Amino acid sequence: MRSKSKTAWLAIVLAALPALAQAATPAALTGDEAAFRGLYQELVEINTTRSVGSCTQAAQAMRAHLASAGIPESDLHIVAPPNDSKNGALIALLRGQETAPKPILLLAHIDVVEAKREDWERDPFKLVEENGFFYARGASDDKAMAAIFTDTLVRLKKEGFKPRRSIKLALTCGEETPDTFNTVRWLTQTQPDALAAEFALNEGAGGELDASGKPVTLQIQAGEKVYQDFELEASDVGGHSSRPTKNNPIVRLSIGLARLGTHNFHIAFNPATRGYFEAQAKTAAPAVAADMRAVLANSSDEAAAERLWAINPGWNGALRTTCVVTQITGGHAANALPQRVRANVNCRILPGVAIAEVQREITSTLADEKISVAPSGDPGMQSPPPPLTPSILGPVRQVADSIWPGVALVPTMSTGATDGRFLNASGVPTYGLSGIFADAEGSHAHGLNERIRVQSLLNGRRFLYEVVKIYATQQ
User: Fold this and answer.
1) Do 358 and 258 lie in a common domain?
2) CA dihedral 24, 27, 31, 34 (to 10 degrees)
3) Rounded CA gap, 108 and 143, in Å?
4) End-of-domain residue from the set 376, 410, 430
5) Which residues contact 433 (CB under 8 A, 6 or more apart)?
6) CA pair distance 288, 282, nearest whole angstrom
7) pLDDT tens, residue by residue, 404-458
8) Which of 279, 308, 304 is nearest to 294 (CA)?
9) Distance (Å, rounded) from C-alpha 368 to C-alpha 177?
10) Is residue 53 included in any domain, yes or no?
């Protein structure tokens, strides 16, 4: 019996080996795609975490590729604050034939979120290609676009392309840890000419694949919500836990947070979010499309909005300001009445809504005068969404039709936060555009086993290269 079982087990394993080998086989690449893969792998495998990594090392590596392509050293600059050896960024320039037009800015951050090896299935700082995906920290966010933009300048320079307007590349640091240091904020405050541009392309939007892997929608992001933390605090004199009072700060704050947890800020549309839901309603399932149209027609239709929220929390985030409790601390001893309790409430505020207005609504919702509410951290960056003009949308539509015929072009607003908030506020219209498609599971950005589809990365490379060429030559 044992012999037969082993024989049967071995037969199953041998039968499965061809499929397993095929699944693990790296994608076949053309000559310049192979060179791009090498550049991408080099960038991904340079640790750029805040704790032990170095953005400067990554910036220097990408500068070497651009210099080898023939871009003069005088147009390749590593910039960093004084006495800061780790937070270097690369500013590169491919000069245009005309000096009057402002350049196009290609913006990508090269720092990444922390990653612990013991938590990952694979080494987070080794690029692994498996089953049609690349896995690594930063494989998607945001070294995919950083590698694509660097590779684009390399290709353009090598082929002798002469753009009408200059193309500027900024590979920056600190996007993931802006409260500590952020290149874009630092440069806009201290060296505004370094990032000056007609407009910028940035992370913030991708594409959506259906269940069969077919591209369905290509997003272009125009505007983003405002990030703002608030500190809530309740306090009392405390005392012995055997003598409870009616003014327990933990209880008071808990009741207030429960009220805030069930409170919905009102729904409001801007051109990007209205365009997004109008486009999604054309491809969504009938019941979902009906709810989208209902909310578009009547922003007070909370029943329809609730059903959309249950399907996709991101849709709720696009419809309204959201505030959620993320941290709570309080009490000082197991046998004492609490003297103080604090909570952090993180808000993502719709563009154009004042932070003070959100603070007033939180205070009103808590309905307890003994709970204080105050903004925490740096004030959120307020900036109007950039316009989606024909000169911006036209090249996107043209290239998208050639690569993904029939794909829907969908405007969107970022519900998170990118470096675009600093650029928009400084007067540089900034658009999220990648052409990198993902399935419903997404990229696992900021989480374990971050990934990106190999074919999606290569398609995004082709898309951005062609779009940039058109932008650089149009009037």
Assistant:
1) yes
2) -60
3) 7
4) 376
5) 201, 202, 204, 205, 220, 221, 396, 464, 467
6) 10
7) 999 999 999 988 889 999 999 999 999 999 999 999 899 999 999 999 999 999 9
8) 304
9) 34
10) yes
Note the pLDDT tens digit of each residue in 364-381.
999 999 999 999 988 888
- The verdict on 85 and 181 lying in the same domain is yes
207: closest CA among 462, 473, 470?
462
Residues 6+ apart with CB under 8 A from 169: 66, 90, 91, 92, 93, 94, 105, 106, 149, 150, 153
CB 104 within 8 A of CB 392: no
Question: Are 149 and 35 within one domain?
Answer: yes
Q: Are 452 and 142 in contact (CB under 8 A)?
A: no
Short-list 75, 144, 146, 70, CA closest to 106 = 146
Whole-number mean pLDDT of the chain?
Answer: 93
- Largest Cα span, the chain: 84
Do 59 and 137 belong together in one domain?
A: yes
pTM above 0.90, yes or no: no
Contact 105, 197 (CB under 8 A): yes
One-character DSSP codes across 277-334: HHHHHHHS-HHHHHHHHHHHH-TT-HHHHHHHHHH-HHHHHHHB-EEEEEEEEE-S-T
Residue 387 lies in a domain: no
**CB atoms near residue 320 (< 10 Å):** 22
Domain at 358, CATH number: 3.30.70.360
Using DSSP, state whether 85 is helix, strand or coil. Answer: coil
Task: Give CA–CA dist 474/199, Å, rounded.
Answer: 13
Q: For residues 177 and 419, is the Cβ–Cβ distance under 8 A?
A: no
d(CA 448, CA 114): 10
- Provide the domain limits for residue 52: 26-204+418-473
Number of domains observed in the structure of the chain = 2
Q: For residue range 109-140, what is the model confidence (pLDDT) as tens digits?
A: 999 999 999 999 999 999 999 999 999 999 99
